[in-house]
Design a protein that fits this description.
Keywords: Signal. By secondary structure, the protein is mostly beta strands. It has one domain. The protein has one helix and nine strands, in the order H-E-E-E-E-E-E-E-E-E. The radius of gyration is 15 Å and the shape is globular.
């Protein structure tokens, strides 16, 4: 399975941020996490699928969401210890799906303050 993901990543074009085309895989880079994202048009919206893997662990994880007009979803990944993580926002506007790296997340250890 990892070999298949690697082959798909090599075939997909790299993505910094921008518009995604239907059925065209785009490479994504979120710090130590790398993978591909694509979408298909379904009867209830655009189904977006992202498969990412951690450079260190190598186990792939798949994220899937169906977006209606005006909806968005986010993929948040942790950074290495002591480093900030990354967030990729996936938005639908009309017939367009846009990918934007929106910033970084803090790695929280321990109990949150209430």
């Amino acid at each position: 399975m990892i070999g298949g993901l690697a082959a798909f990543c090599l075939a997909a074009s790299p993505l910094q941020a921008g518009e995604l085309s239907a059925m065209a895989g785009e490479s994504i880079n979120l710090g130590r996490f790398h993978g591909v994202v694509y979408y298909t048009s379904e009867h209830d919206g655009y189904r977006v699928v992202a498969t990412i893997t951690d450079d260190e662990a190598g186990s792939p994880v798949r994220f899937s969401s169906t977006l209606a007009e005006g909806q968005s979803a986010a993929i948040s990944v942790p950074g290495k210890e002591g480093k900030l993580g990354s967030i990729l926002e996936i938005s639908r506007s009309g017939a367009k799906i846009t990918l934007t790296e929106v910033g970084s997340t803090h790695n929280h250890v321990g109990s949150p303050e209430l």
